[in-house]
């Protein structure tokens, strides 16, 4: 394609600017009649054959003459990037394509770099979010996050397996939401009342702690904020077996129990349960040795173990005992075994022989029973004194 061939399009129309479209049909720019004249007037410039119209010579601003052109005619010729005529556009179609072109030109080139950075950040955020979800799902303690109204946003597997299955919640997330929402209010109210505070700058309610004997766990209520605005709450459940107290002791923290206003019976039961559990662990689950160590009878210790329900309370720490079945004695095995029929005998013959042997055994037992009273009489006579024998003889003579 030669550059001179572009001028022929202006000979067929009165328009001073002709739209140029790309391969996909989108508007690339406007070819101006003045710019073609200027390029052709430069006689010293060598012109080579072109594959397409140079984008540098295309304009992106709409002239007034082109607007006036649509008052005289309804269609305008459209040429492709290869310099050939492609179509005729009416005014609405031309203006729609021009607005798209204008919006692309107005866009700041820095936006592309900013968008690429944002995309990279999104990718990083997605990877971080995935890793955070993995950590929370494998967290050993129970976690549940709710919004301000008490609706569940997130809970991990530990909460679903260990906490939600307790009788207090009965495997129902709705009952758990109601209970925790009311618990949050009660704990906040008791904290403010004990410290003579009101909700404001003085009260630090970001983390509140309480104990739940029904769940045998400690609960930390963490307030979630975004730009000083409360968004939700995170409930962190710690098992009583893993340790309430400070240091190495597994006993409940007495200060925490006091602030939670727990009854004295529950605190004493918790301490007693931990103390007995430790003693049983030290004595390899031997109740007799643990009872002697604790200074109480064995039956008392058994009753306390049942009353405190240690098997369920410390079920994660309970070791499974191997039960070895007892072997049966040889005598029982011989009695239960039935004699097999000999060669040449039928089952009926063997059965009749067995009946005969049973009858002989019964007769022998009867003869033994009958002989026992005579033997007793003989024994009694031997034991009689000589004076008693004389008295017996006189009694016989009188008869």
UniProtKB/TrEMBL annotation:
Compositionally biased tracts (Basic and acidic residues): 330-339
Biased composition regions of type Basic residues, renumbered to the chain: 390-399
Highest taxon listed in the record's lineage: Bacteria
Leader peptide range in chain numbering: none
Chain segments carrying region Disordered: 319-399
Residue span, DNA binding HTH domain: 268-306
GO function terms (MF aspect): sequence-specific DNA binding
Protein name: Transcriptional regulator
């Amino acid at each position: 394609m030669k550059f001179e061939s572009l001028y022929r399009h202006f000979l067929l129309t009165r328009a001073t600017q002709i739209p140029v479209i790309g391969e996909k049909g989108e508007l690339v720019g406007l070819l101006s009649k003045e710019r073609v004249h200027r390029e052709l007037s430069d006689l010293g410039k060598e012109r080579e054959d072109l594959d397409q119209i140079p984008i540098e010579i295309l304009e992106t601003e709409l002239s007034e003459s082109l607007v006036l052109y649509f008052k005289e005619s309804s269609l305008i010729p459209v040429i492709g990037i290869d310099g050939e005529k492609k179509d005729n556009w009416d005014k609405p179609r031309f203006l729609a394509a021009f607005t798209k072109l204008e919006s692309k030109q107005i866009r700041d080139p820095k936006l592309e770099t900013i968008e690429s950075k944002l995309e990279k950040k999104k990718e990083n955020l997605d990877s971080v979010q995935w890793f955070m979800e993995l950590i929370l799902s494998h967290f050993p303690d129970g976690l549940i996050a709710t919004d301000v109204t008490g609706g569940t946003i997130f809970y991990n597997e530990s909460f679903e397996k260990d906490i939600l299955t307790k009788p207090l919640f009965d495997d129902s997330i709705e009952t758990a939401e109601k209970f925790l929402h009311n618990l949050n209010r009660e704990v906040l109210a008791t904290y403010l009342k004990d410290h003579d505070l009101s909700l404001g700058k003085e009260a630090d309610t970001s983390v509140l702690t309480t104990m739940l004997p029904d769940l045998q766990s400690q609960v930390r209520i963490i307030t979630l904020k975004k730009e000083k605005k409360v968004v939700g709450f995170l409930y962190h459940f710690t098992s009583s077996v893993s340790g309430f107290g400070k240091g190495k002791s597994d006993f409940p923290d007495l200060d925490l129990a006091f602030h939670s206003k727990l009854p004295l019976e529950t605190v004493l039961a918790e301490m007693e349960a931990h103390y007995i559990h430790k003693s049983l662990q030290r004595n390899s689950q031997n109740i007799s040795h643990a009872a002697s160590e604790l200074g109480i009878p064995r039956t008392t210790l058994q009753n306390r173990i049942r009353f405190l329900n240690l098997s369920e309370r410390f079920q994660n720490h309970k070791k499974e005992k191997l039960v070895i079945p007892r072997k049966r004695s040889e005598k029982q095995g011989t009695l239960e075994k039935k004699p097999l029929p000999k060669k040449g005998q039928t089952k009926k013959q063997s059965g009749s022989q067995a009946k005969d042997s049973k009858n002989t055994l019964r007769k022998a037992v009867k003869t033994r029973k009958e002989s026992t009273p005579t033997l007793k009489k003989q024994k009694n006579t031997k034991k009689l004194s000589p004076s008693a024998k004389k008295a017996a003889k006189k009694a016989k003579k009188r008869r």
